[in-house]
Records
---
Amino acid sequence: MAWTRFTKKKDMPGGLWIKCESCGSMLFRKEFESRHRVCASCGYHFTLPGRERVELTADEGSFVELFADLVAEDRLGFVDKVPYAEKLTQTREKTGEADAMIVGTCTVHGIPCVLGVMNFAFLGGSMGMVVGEKVARAVETALERKIPVILVACSGGARMHEGAISLMQMAKTCATLAKLQAAGGFSISVMTHPTTGGVTASFASVCDLLIAEPGALIGFAGPRVIATTIKKELPKGFQRAEFLLEKGQIDRIVPRDQLRAELAKLMAYATGRDVVAAAQTPPKAEPSPSAPGKDAGKKKKGKRDKAEPGPGDGKRGADGAEA
Amino acid sequence: MSETKSSELQNGLLFERPLLEMEQKIEELRRLAQNTHLDLSGEIKALEARLRSQTAEVYAGLTPWEKVIVARHAERPMTSDYIAMMLDDFTELHGDRLYGDDRAIVTGLAQMGGVRFMLIGHRKGKSVKDRLACNFGCAHPEGYRKALLKMRLAEKLRIPIVTFINTPGAYPGIGAEERGQAGAIATNILAMFGLRVPIISIVIGEGGSGGALGIGIGDRVGILEHAYYSVITPEGCAAILWKAGDKAAEAAAALKLTSADLRKHGLVDDVIEEPLGGAHRDVRGTVERVKARISSWLSELAELPIETLLEQRHHKFRSMGLPAEGVTETAVGVS
């Protein structure tokens, strides 16, 4: 393609083109975004903004956001170059988001679930009290409504500005996942580029299934910290999704364009639905009705509708999770 | 004595210099009194009193960064000291039965005053050789897996678990990542919420981030007065946020990592006071205080029905750092 020969960003009319971080190809922005930010040339998966991730994952019109009003507080009076309180305000304005996590209920190919998505644009997707609380509530919602929870990680780790409070969010998120697991609930972690630090060392690594996007950097310590510590260059591909798969640390690597179908399939396995049917794109769902299914929680654990609400039959889970 | 002093100075306890000078002066007066048979007891007593008050003053006024330095002091009591001085028996259990025996975490069966428990602790080592063998208290995944294996054994034996936290952090290295450092820590945190025996954790020196929390989910969490517990080392924080490693002191202050700060934010249950001038000045005294705390907590927790214990453990950590609630109650959007 001729346009891949363009190399300098300034040669391009403002914002129409974007350069691939991996192979250097110039990508037409509109096409690039319609491909959910995957490079057409080399397949590199760019970090996906949180809202686009929701759009990519949830059936159209099915996502109902929860807990959007939770806001972080500067409990420590943390100041580095600017006060954390100020940084929060600025970042909220810049991103239009309250914090680095978006949580809601939705359907994926018709299967109701709770979806939690981290937003890297908000202070590097760092986990502080709001992210921790939202993950915890996402898990608790899944437990209450007896539906699966999908957590999409994208984070540099814990939020230093909240000190040990942010550290304890590792404990908080794991506490709720421990409860979910003991109750037989089902959770999927999707680790995307990058997933490191306290997020990897907590909820993102202890879900029932661990999925990664191709090429995603996933690890405990960041590569720079490791290189400085061991005073050696790191091997090629170190801490990438493929490396983790080879080392037995994750279940699957799933390219972004297949992720929704894959999640639907995995949830179908976990909830006794037909897997082949679940993998197929359902006809467009109607905008979701509002009322949360309060009766859902009263249903017996693990038991679903006999009718097996498949993705194509237009019948949503009777557990009302689409609310 | 003088050896200790010079090594303290080497350890960077500059704020101790006036104290050490005074100690030296007292020592000199004693020698002089001995050699000349002069009666200097009045002077010595006065100086000793001044030393005590000045020590108290210096230690009351430690900056967060100075506390970090005290927490890292080479002569500060470590897990091995507690094992040696506090227990009637310690039977070490090695290995994760999967990969290796990580020396950075020691695990074993312990008896203390007729009570039995599983002891899990970061080990830093004292001599240079020891320190290297223990990787300076930075555990690998096999260390966390060993800890979990032994904690599960404790659950089976129905004995409580006592953990000693003293690590700069879990090791950031190639092997650690290959073998799933993050997953090992996360698995421990999750599993500890389900362990059906009481768990007590004491931060005795450095509470370094996830590496500390990996053995830190306690029904009761105590921290020594001059120990610290932090999401990241001050040096690491300075490097990232200030882009300058020499801003560690500023970072230490900003992180609010001292025992008093942690208590204030409800992240620990108790601060254990250290002997005058820090734990390194009185190892035995420190061990005794920690022992007393553990004993009283063990008997307190033994009274609780296990379901209550688990519920309280969950609730404690679930409630840490609750954010502010906005105007609307729950759903934004369709509702």
---
Amino acid sequence: MPMKDILLKPLDQPVYTLEAEVVKPDDFAGKSIEEILELEVYYGNRVGKLRDFFDVSGEAPDNPEELRIVIDGDISRIKRIGQKMKAGEIFVKGSAGMYVGALMEGGKITVEGNVDSFSGMMMRGGEIYIKGDAGEYLGCTYRGDRLGMRGGIIIVEGNSGMETGQFLNGGKIIIKGNTGAFTGVHMKKGMIVVDGKAGVRTGGQMTGGAIVVKGEIESLLPGFDLDKRVENPSIENEPFNGSFDKYSGDSAEKGAKGSLYVKI
Amino acid sequence: MMLKSLKDSGIGFWRVSEMELVLKNGFVYDPANNINGEKKDIFIKNGKIVESVNRNAKKIDCSGKIVMPGGVEIHSHIAGGKVNSGRILRPEDHFKHVQAKTGLRRGCTGYSTPSTFAVGYLYSQLGYTTAFTGAIPPLTARHTHEELHDIPMLDKSGLVLMGNNWFLLRYLRDKDYERAAVYVAWLLKATRGYAIKIVNPGGGEAWGWGKNVRSIDDPVPHFDITPGEIISGLMEVNELLNLPHSIHVHFNNLGRMGNYTTTIDSLELTRGKKSSHDRQVMQATHLQFHSYGGDSWKTFESRSDEIAKDVNRRDNIAMDTGNLIFGDTTTMTADAPMEYYLASLTKYKWMNRDIELETSPGITPMFYSKKSPISTVQWAVGLELALLIDDPWKVMITTDHPNGGPFINYPTVFAWLMSSKYREETMTGLNSAVEKKAILATIDRELDFNEIAIGTRAAQAKSLGLQETKGHLGAGADADIAVYDINPEVIDPSRDYKAIEKSFRMAAYTIKDGKILVRDGEIVKVVDGKTLYVNAEVGEELKKDVMKDIEYNFKRFYSVNLNNYPVQELYLTNPTAINIETKLE
């Protein structure tokens, strides 16, 4: 599909973090540049306009699927980019703040730098691709809830922080680097693949789904029992090369059926 | 802040006194005055209902609409330590339900644990004007009143937890009802509360030892008293003090299968007991949770027939239903062992707390699923009780908010009770257990508007001893009125249940103290209501003697000083004492 670009050039970095959930193709589609500049953002306890924080240029098609938002700069103090996004693309040429693609349902977000915590929170579909590192709580749930990410895919080229995929309930998270503590804690469904090292207490209280660690695990929880050694396994319908130790757990939870694969 | 609200209310009262209003041509349902759907004008002056007003008084056209007294909520957890802890436990409940502020009202969050301001607005939109919070732990009474202070639109008060109180356990063990009564009078005033609430008598104290009580004859550890003796004793004390409301009891074994026998045993305690004035001697609360048969999850079934039969043959008790709403909610009671048991079933987060010598509340979220055989039977039990108990004055409709479900779903409960067709339609989507283990499908009864008016305002007012000023539309009553956009000549609730549900959800008018607060479901004015509390006078000599005991035991056991314990009137919005002359000289 031919994409049309809307270019957002960040002005000065805001002193307080800015909440800009309007920055998504669904909200831009079919609007003139002037209308886009008038969209409301939340700045501290005040309501501001997008024009206070960005220069906007380009042309927005009616269909959000044909729209790509390119953010030309660092927006690490701007939160909720692509929140509840359903279609189209967002391309961030720098780093982005918290809640990137939270509650996202479709489309694609690419971030060339890092993202802050809570990215992909309760995501339901679509794709988030992060070239740098992710903060804590990647693909997690909202505080207190027990249903986290339910669909879609998150790929991180760098490392991710603590509680990656907390309460994961579907979808896939791929970390090319290392993860922090509590990777996949409470997870029920879906898959987490860690190419590097996984932090302590990986898979704690997981009841289903699969975690694949290609590097090593900092320490294995006692709730995981060695099931068997597998060669070139197919995990969640995806082939993996090499030999893995397959553990099942976390048996601290009644009837838990999670699997943890560690490459040897 | 508190001083300001007192001053504000004074100004407000002055303005009201000039105000005259006529509600013209509505279909009036005023069961306390035997008015059943007659076309009638209601006159309002000085915030009260009167016989007539000036010809140039402001008129509101209510033709084609129903006019009822403002709703009175008898049991709903809207303020207090555990309500606030529930909010802390459930950030996701607030994340999912957000309402932006308008020029008039504040922003609101929360569904099963709504913010304080939301509680006032939402009740008012349903046509309610008075609400009682279900349980005040005495030690957190100050906090409770700070929350009540922030609930606008309603007259409010609360029931004070006394079923596991060390002082009372000791007095009642010694059958020293006089001292117990003096202590209750002191505690009601100290907490600025309204009535005696008993929750899982003895069980809360046993929980301190990791135990519970299983019947009304189980001894309470270290106190040599049984739950039955606690209930009977406090019933005695309540009538000795001549309190406006009766004792308000949450029985032992809440939510347990086969608990209906405990319930019947507890109801039997009222045999031969006489009330000090025209009301019941016991309010059996959220009876839905106490009417289960069976001895395992497989045999779990409704025994509402037994309970209803028992309630029908007694003339000195009243009950409220505690209906169930499907979906997500938060359970919170002062019954910590029950909450622990529930959390161990759902394997979900929970919390509980030890309120020193007084009580122990617990909280856990709950999802009532239409697919669950248990939830569906529970749903049926609540409706069965309301339909099987013959005298509507005994049946008060509640959801035990938020335990059975959030109160904003009341209109759905009314519609279920008014339409067997709606019940059938709902039942088709439920687990088949509802047909095998409950008897709802065999009941054809449908409540009419008069019975709904009794079960949502008139019976509550009578039970609470507020029948002079609340729950009716006769001259002298507070001008607390709800108008709903339902034409009983056109709408047949049995068929048009969706219309009923919608109209009850958004009052056409809610009028409180003669002021229009809600119009077409929208808040048009925000006011602070009154806070009621009971001031029961007892003889000085008796009081001195009991105070000595209180002082001594406060020093020994409490973490606070006695002087810091009583709540000052300053914490209350428009404090209104209900002065009681007791038999204790």
---
Amino acid sequence: MEKKQSSIAAARAARRAARAKENEANQKKASKKGKIQITLGVLLFIAIIITGYVLKVNVSSKSALMWVFGISFGVTLQRARFCFTAAVRDPALTGSMSLAKSVLIAIGIATIGFAAIHYANGDPSTAKLAKGAYYFVKPVGLHTAVGAFLFGIGMVIAGGCASGTLMRIGEGFMMQMITLIFFICGVLLGFANRPFWKDKIFFKPVHFPKEFGWVPALFLQFVLLFLCFLTVEYISRKRKQKK
Amino acid sequence: MQEKELDCLGEACPIPLVKAEKAMNTLEVGDLLIISIDHSCAMKNLPEWARDNGHNVEIEETGEGQWEVFIEKCK
């Protein structure tokens, strides 16, 4: 074991030495770069706080809140190397389950949170569907399956879903700018054609708690999540056996 | 012992992994594969995949947003 470790260490040392030599040639440039990163980070942090304050004063508290949530979401995604694309792709590609599990757990936690929000926003048995949280219950149907399929192909080719693409542009991965351009094209096309889809394809929104009551709805949701987990586990195990 | 370098700079997430998997099949036990990446996502799933398969892995940041992943084939 020790001998094996040392072969990696030797290669690392050799490459580090080669890099150091290279850096010596343009040393000033290299040492400056490291400092700039910290300075920029501090400046950016201050700019984020100022922007949040300006949003609150000039636009609304809600915009400031959305700004904070957006930044937090991005930071979490980046630091955790969280990737929804990898979550659905890796079980089949490498047999890795870690991201798929974390997404399922995240949906589980979100279910509890959203249930609380919906519950606090009125009795589902009364006709309050147009108000509050119920307004955001979207219709499900064939278009969901077709859209999911197209989105799945797109995100695996592009190397990121919506949030992942945005996060990696922030990291400076330029190739994903191309993804963003076509992502915007797609969204604009979708919204332009939305009336057609709304009239011809969409069903009525289905709100589980309204149809079944709160406890059965939550139970159903968790059973479905568990079925998702079993499916992913099955795919992952099959993939690992193939090797 | 053989050392193979794989340049995956500018390649998005699954490509470095797929390339590494193919390169790994051409190597003997004890050989070293060095993959250059600049996609942060590959920094997570490459080592995870390699460790899952029982290889030795180390990562080194060679520049801002650039890494080298060292994988030693162990079986």
